Amino acid sequence: MPSDNLRFTDLANPSVLKQPIYEPGKPIDLVVREFGIDPSTTIKLASNENPLGASPKALEAVRSFLDETYLYPDGGCYLLRQKLSEKLGLAPDQFVFGNGSNEVIELIGHAFLKAGDEVVMGEQAFIVYKLITLLFQAHPVEVPLVNFTHDLAAMAAAVNERTKLVFLPAPNNPTGTLNPADEILDFARSLPEHVIFVVDEAYAEYLEDPVDLRPLIEEGRKVICTRTFSKIYGLAGFRVGYGYCSAECASLMNRVREPFNVNAVAQVAAIAALDDDEFVNASRECNDAGLQMLTNFCKENRLSYVPSVGNFLLVNVGDGMRVFQELQKVGVIVRPMAPYGFPEHVRISIGTAAENQRLIATLQTTLGLS
Ligand SMILES: Cc1ncc(COP(=O)(O)O)c(C=O)c1O
User: Fold this and answer.
1) Cβ(228) – ligand 1 distance below 6 Å
2) Distance 301 CA to ligand 1 centre (A)
3) Mean pLDDT to the nearest integer, 221-250
4) Is the dihedral of CA 106, 110, 114, 118 positive or negative?
């Protein structure tokens, strides 16, 4: 019999033992089990998903594709690559695809990070940048936000000869704030040659006028942009995202990815979703109206919030954990923000009009508002 003296933990790569664990938004099923509540009236406003569901064109394409799923997917995502290449006016070899943009961020780590590298990021930026940095035993250099917004001057000052990557979400999750386009471009042009600038555009399709980083790539600057089908296209469960950059950079990232990292169904869904302008426009309108409804509610009730250009709102409710717990007991799931250093806040994803009403009603009760 083997002894208990040597455990798997003793054999683990020591950095794995220090690796923090990502806490996702709580799924509806889990909350229903925990609190014994009715699944049909439980709503999730916790992971910035699309409240209108998945793109109908994507779903239609997927339904007629299911018989093909006994075959491996196209590892190179040929059709999706062609489609995006036409849409964005970039060469097909300038793309890299991932199991969500999360995987693309990890591929950046695989391709470029080594132990001891420094990675500059906002202190309250999307937490995956820090997790990926630690995964590769690199060092996160966290720069505090100012007014809930990335402080580009302070980030520039944090860059040194050990810096390998700088992450900037445009806009940031969880704050919903966006740096002005001209400042992002100036910042990119000010970075030294040995620094790779990663701009996370997960919510770009919600913006009226997203910053265009393609000129930077054309100028030969070291820029990688990441995007996702999880948000406005409503395909979070399919898991598909992409990065675009120079062909040289994309080929390095392609070396380190698993051969069939984007499943065939996700590829079919993403291709069809790119043609679903009607759904994208409806999603944007639903989001604008919902943001307006929630910000009006905050103003009327003197709750401070961070003006957002994303599909979520960071609201100061006094005690974020208490409010999160009270809301989930009545079937409304939001996200407590203590892990981001905002213990007084919750982040609320924008829902449908009915979901937003429900959120407002439950918040009124929980916060004792009239
Ligand atoms: C800023 C930001 N980047 C990236 C992601 C990852 O999205 P996905 O892996 O679903 O593409 C998210 C998800 O919430 C996000 O908020």
Assistant:
1) yes
2) 31
3) 98
4) negative
